[in-house]
Amino acid sequence: MQLSSPALPVGGFSYSEGIESAVDAGWIVDESSANAWICDQLNLSLSRGDLSLLAQAIPAWKDFDKPRLKNLNQWILSTRETSETRLQTEQMGRSLVEWIKNQDVVDKERIDFLVALPPTWPLSFALALAPFAIETKACLLAYAFSWAENIVQACIKTVPLGQKSGQRILATLRQQIPNAVEYALALSDNERQTFTPGLAILCATHETQYSRLFRS
User: According to the model, what pLDDT value does residue 210 have?
Assistant: First the structure.
């Protein structure tokens, strides 16, 4: 629960993951369109990509399977299709490493290995969870809800939406996240993907968008 808190000092609130561009393009204009966009992003991107990888990275950290961890980390980097989205995963990964160092639950060898990769957000999150006897499904639920809160806050600020609208969207996501997690847990390496070309185009557009609130 601590790792899923918006108070975790990793800067997740700084990123909109394309939402700011979607608002600028007129694709997100109100609560309904925001709700549809975020639910699609959950099911078409997060569930098929990062959540599935997280489920595989946690046991890899427990076993300290270095080749496997390198492969998973490289997959994350290779699926970040713009400089902004790569910056996001690396910055948040580095910030979480600093948090991990202050917890005294992860050994130095694992931390040094992660720092050298360089760290990405999903792999750092997996390392933070690996020392604890927490069910993998619960870990994915925490990761997904943390993402949901940040992305809904980005919509509230950008569309803009009221807090009540944000809470209704979160209620919808709360219902969909368990199914998205179950789907992610069932995926193999060959099935994992992040094919969302529309989102990639918006993220690339954001890099030159005039007047931005967010870093992605």
Answer: 83
Whole-angstrom distance, CA of residue 148 vs CA of residue 187: 21
Strands (E), the chain: none
Tell me the three state secondary structure of residue 56.
Answer: helix
- Place 82 in a pLDDT band, splitting at 50, 70 and 90: very high
142 vs 1: CA distance, rounded Å = 7
CATH topology of domain 12-206: Urease accessory protein UreF (1.10.4190)
Task: Give the burial class of 46: count Cβ atoms within 10 A of its Cβ; 0-12 exposed, 13-18 middle, 19 or more buried.
Answer: buried
pLDDT per residue as tens digits for the range 108-152:
999 999 999 999 999 999 999 999 989 999 999 999 999 999 999
In whole angstroms, what is the distance from residue 88 CA to residue 91 CA?
5
CB 115 within 8 A of CB 97: yes
